[in-house]
Amino acid sequence: MEEIETCPAQRLLKMLSGKWKAEIFRLATESPLRFNNLLRQIQGSNKQSLATALKELEEEGLLEKITIKLKPLHIEYNLTEKGKALIPVFQQLEGLA
């Protein structure tokens, strides 16, 4: 049986629930993300929890993973169009806190 969402914001809250997802999303609104920078920026994070959160945000269509083939090879995460469309909603939620 499929769950019926009674509040439009419920879907966004579900997408951003979980360890570090909201913080990662907030940082992605400011600039492209790199994994090691995230490890330094998010106090208490670890490689496994960050990797899981990034993968889930990518699966939700909020982040896209881009491999930059310059030496040294590195990966950046950027907001997708779907992610960018959610910025005003996210900012409103932040303003309520």
Structural description of this entry:
The structure is a single chain. This protein has about 100 residues and is an alpha+beta fold. Helices cover about 55% and strands about 10% of the residues. It is built from six helices and two strands, in the order H-H-H-H-E-E-H-H. It has helices spanning about 10-15, 20-30, 35-40, 45-60, 80-85, 85-95, and strands at about 65-70, 75-80. It has a two-stranded antiparallel sheet. A hairpin with a 5-residue loop joins strand 1 and strand 2.
Strand content: 5-15%
The first-to-last residue Cα distance is: 33 Å
Main pleated-sheet profile: 2 strands, antiparallel
Number of helices: 6
Radius of gyration: 14 Å
Helical proportion, percent range: 40-55%
On the 0 to 100 scale, the average pLDDT is 86
The dominant shape is globular
Overall SS class: alpha+beta
What is the strand tally? 2
Enumerate the spans where pLDDT stays under 50 for 5 or more consecutive residues. none
Write down the secondary-structure element order: HHHHEEHH
Trace the largest sheet across and list its strands: 1-2
Keywords: DNA-binding, Transcription, Transcription regulation
Pfam families: HxlR
InterPro entries: HTH_HxlR, WH-like_DNA-bd_sf, WH_DNA-bd_sf
Protein name: Winged helix-turn-helix transcriptional regulator
Labels describing this entry:
97 residues, alpha+beta, two-stranded antiparallel ribbon, 6 helices, 12% strand
Q: What's the short story on this structure?
A:
The protein has six helices and two strands; from the N terminus they run ααααββαα.
